[in-house]
Design brief:
Helix content of chain A: 40-55%
CATH superfamily of the domain at 229-376 in chain A: Butyryl-CoA Dehydrogenase, subunit A, domain 3
Largest sheet of chain A: 5 strands, antiparallel
CATH superfamily of the largest domain in chain B: Acyl-CoA dehydrogenase/oxidase, N-terminal domain
Largest interface: A-B, 51 and 58 residues
Number of helices of chain A: 12
Distance between the termini of chain A: 30 Å
CATH architecture of the largest domain in chain B: Orthogonal Bundle
Distance between the termini of chain B: 39 Å
Number of strands of chain A: 10
Mean pLDDT of chain A: 95
Oligomer: heterodimer
Strand content of chain A: 5-15%
CATH topology of the largest domain in chain B: Butyryl-Coa Dehydrogenase, subunit A, domain 1
Amino acid sequence: MALDELRLEFSDEQAMLAESAREFLRDKCTTEQVREWMGLSTGYHTALWQEMAQLGWMGIALPEEHGGSGLSAGALVTVVETMGRYLLASPFLATTMAAQLLDQAGNNSQREQWLPAIAAGECIATVALAPADGAWLPEHTGVTATRKGKGWRLEGRKSGVLELAFADLVLVSADTDKGPAVFALSREDIPYTAIEREYLVDETRRSYRMDCDGIRLGNDALLAGGDSAAAIRDTHALGWLLVGAELTGVADGVFSLMLEYLKTRTQFGKTIGSYQALKHPTVDIMGQIENSRGLMQQAATVFDGANGESEVAARMLKAYAGDTAAFATDRAVQFHGAFGFTWECDVQLYFRRATWARHVFGDALHHRARLAELLLGEHNGES
Amino acid sequence: MAQDKQHVSREERDKFAQKVSAWLKANIPSKPDFRLPLTFMEIDNRAQFEYLRDWQQQVYEAGYLGMSWPEEYGGGGMPQVYQDIVTREMARLQAPFMINAIGLSWAGPTILKLGTEAQKKRYIKKILSAEEIWCQGFSEPENGSDLGNARTRAVRDGDSYVINGSKIWTSQAEYAAHMILIARTDPAAPNKYAGLSFFLAPMDVPGIDIRRIRKMTGEYGFAQTFFDDARIPADTLVGEEGQGWSVAMAVLAFERGAALGQAGGNIMSVISARDLVQTAGKSRRDGRPALADMRIREQLVQCMIEERCLRLNRQRGRDPRLLTPGREFAPMLMSKLQGSEYMRRMAAFAVSLQGGQAPLYVDDTQALDDGMWQRQHMNSYSATIGGGTSEIQRNIIGERLLGLGKG
């Protein structure tokens, strides 16, 4: 089994980020708070968002000349994992993905227009990638863009657009006659009637459908700084990495909750954790969480978008961490007994978050099927 | 042993790896005309034994074994990283495994850590050279994983201890010169653990009877060892009388994945998911390659992911920042459980994907890879049962690492 070494590194900056994220969110993002913020229309707390910006989180992986820290995208995982652990709902994921997409596909003036504001926490941004049916393939944009005079006209629908109703910047992927492209839309570009809220299993998240029919854009909305098709694919890959990290955190968070219950709840005169029927799966869950963390750390180390080893590692993480979070949340409900079945028990928050996160940017089946093509070669149909 | 890899430059490591690889390519013996065992627990006959013993001797004489052990006892006195490179290259080039596994991975490190100067001088070099093979005497017929209840007795009589009782699942008992033996010296001790002692027992004294055990695979490899007034020298005791439990725990720490301090060298044939993929490529199901079947492909990918997890968890131990706060020992403690369970599931899958050929066994001319997976599937239970069953592992990890109540 012990064959070649895998690349696995961890920087001092990542260690510091992990530490500060843990301390910050442990204190500020209790499940009481999560339940309170769940009732807000935007689903997040603006003062907390400002504090996160002051900690520099929005600029972690943005270039220094645009107000960021200039770290690699891999450096984001420790923060996102911790957000999952404490069930934080905030526009961090959407804004980070949009910022990376803009940085890769935008030209200098587009970057200068948006990135410093994003790094400062003054701009909520999001990506509209998935088509109406929620397909996970990057090449399925679901929207076409045609030239109209000096500008563009969009046609089609998007789904799963996080924070759309209050985003300052929305990056929309679309097919043009010259291939896939990305358009930067400001709030005023999107009519109010184009936005429809999706009601998710995870009530802490805000996600929307977007009707792009008839949206008209100037030519400067087109991101024109690089290979947009590659940038779209790489943004999906960033989704695999970051949501994979979030799932790892969710699994670890619900595991802590469950462990505490197993040690304190007594039945038939013994703590329930002393029964092997509960103890053994608990150890297996812990093992899978450790495995997920290893995959996450490695995917972060090699992350370079949807290419080569980076694609393999990020897909492995998303697949495995999804299964792990499913296993952990499933057993957490069961092991809490009747209490686990209630709204009051915090396990439901993790369960619902895991259900959402497992099914955005590709589920485990999807990624294993793609990994089979990457690792075992194409073998479709008869042969 | 104490020096770590930071002291050896990448360039130096690469240069050394090339040298080792060249030596291995020139010296790995050609495949014999008999079937080789997959692990040190499966030595079925003398021809296998001699082939593997000669190979270990050759590796030691070339300076590629015990490289990090002290020079004064026959080791190389070099940083551990060199041995790790050799072990890795051996696995990569599929070199036969090191036969004296108990000596290299359990007895040797224990003697170096807890033995007397005289014991180190007496035993270490011959462990490395395979001149003296070691076996392990922990399990007893009545107490499988429950070492604390060992009943084999050791009674002090002058300069000797007199041993009575029986040990079971002893690999290579008939070839071994010595056994690491747990025996009860004080049945009246206030707790059962305090009554145990740890010996480096010679196997050639009168009163020892070895009975081979045939395994479910049809092969031999294990034995039951009977002690009937067997008299062993008192200076084979490790530590003090009554310290046997703590010595055994140190040994088991080596067994359960604390690789530091082991002499190195691969002690098992390395089977990986790559072999599994090759098997799928050669297998046909209902007239189509197994590798074209979506369900098979998905499971192959799952195996590759799990295998990567095992490798990563081993690597994570080198940088404490990669470990989870509050359970830093988790990857190390889980490695035996996860590794053995993974191998078992992988072997079961490898058999089943062969479709209509899956029932063929080792002597059949059409058996895929000479029935390697069918044999491996059955043998894989030795790792999920031996050294503490998976169920006991889960109890230990659940109680000691996670703090769950005792059952």
